[in-house]
Amino acid sequence: MFRVNERVVFREIDDRIVLINLDSGYYYSLNEVGCFIFNQILKNKGIDDILDEIEGHFEVSQGRAREDLEEFMGTLEKEQIIRAAG
Amino acid sequence: MDTKRLRFQTIIPLQKYSLILKSDSEKIIEAVSCWVDADIAGRHSADALSPRVPVEVDLYSGLPPAGVEMPSSPAPTAVFEDVKFYLDSDYTALTFDDKSFVNVDLKKGIARGFVCKEHLEAPWTISHRIFYVPVLEMMRAKGVCYIHAGCVCRGNQSILLSGGSGHGKSTLTYALARSRFSYLSDDAVFVENGPAGIEIFSFPEKIKLDTNSRSFFPEFDEFEKSRGKMEIPLKSTRISDVVVRGEPYAVIFCGIGHGKESKLAGLPRSETLLRLIGQSVSIASKKSIERNLDMLMALSEASRSYELKVGNTFEGVPELIESALFAQPRTGGERPGS
Predict the structure, then answer these.
(1) Residues B90/B75, Cβ–Cβ less than 8 Å
(2) Which residues of B touch A13 (CB under 8 A)?
(3) Do B153 and B184 contact (CB within 8 A), yes or no?
(4) B320 vs chain A: nearest CA distance in angstroms?
(5) 3-class DSSP state for residue A66?
(6) Whole-model pTM?
(7) Which residues of chain B are in CATH 3.90.228.20 domains?
(8) What are B187-241's pLDDT values in tens digits?
(9) Per-residue pLDDT for B44 more than 70?
(10) Which fold has domain B146-326?
(11) Around B329, how many Cα atoms within 13 Å sit in the side-chain half-sphere?
């Protein structure tokens, strides 16, 4: 499971999420799919649960979905937007 | 200690945004006075100020009074270039190049700090760092958000003209204000979400145009080309109508196009919000940034948004904008609430 870094501020507008990392000063925009995944993280879902949700909402193979999800989560972690929950 | 008082401008419509600057140094007063574009010497007596002055900045170059000390915390919360931030929800401390510092009480709206000898010789550092950062932070804490943008109005309807430095904001602002729109600001506006809704206000006394901007307009042919960026009094321009406030109506992000023709295209609200963040939000406490973000969201939602790519001349641009924004009010750009 992952948690959103408490030093990140975010707002949803239309089908996007805009995030600001208060420590780095960097800000980000998530597209529709990124927004969907981020909302699953907010619901405290783990990778496998998020994968199930993705497969239920988007037409994508399981292998491709896992690959893309892991890459996306890796980016969020690298940018310190999310952290692995202990 | 020499005490000076100033407001941002004389024609501020809402006196509650008054500002007091106290300093023991004429250099500090001068540096700040350049930035706020106010001739403070003798211009405002204490009686002229509103009793509801919310923002006070005391900057000392000599010995600061007891309680005004360099932050002692070992690690800053955030660092931006030469500024270190020690952030809390109600209290912020800033150090500049580890030499000057300001302690900001956001609840009281009072900032007190020390300016070192080296910074005393650097007016830009005094105005844009030591003074500007705490003032904007205090204004944010009071629900007033700053945006780096020009602004013109049609009646009460404001058109924010945003974009990075060098993207043609001031030139576009002037091109619009000299022909079909009222002038509100060339560089900075403040936004407040009050009981009557979102209000955009600024202090339109002068307009800053550089040599290149002036070259588009024949009325500036007589101005010295070597002088670079100049503050031009409005009476020396073709601006005939000035306003001090407006309601949100449209946001236009301007840039230099590659073609001959200028082009205006609609922008999604999420893109508008993202671009406004770049022109408004700076490092601050979480509470303050959330407040800033909510204001920008409300502004994005209340405005139709466009991107303008200016061709090789500003001729025809006011007509293009007027036509897209007002002549066909249901066809151009992103609609509020869409």
Answers:
(1) no
(2) 269-270, 273, 297, 300-301
(3) yes
(4) 28
(5) helix
(6) 0.81
(7) 146-326
(8) 888 898 878 889 998 877 788 899 999 999 999 998 877 778 888 989 999 999 9
(9) no
(10) Phosphoenolpyruvate Carboxykinase; domain 3 (3.90.228)
(11) 5
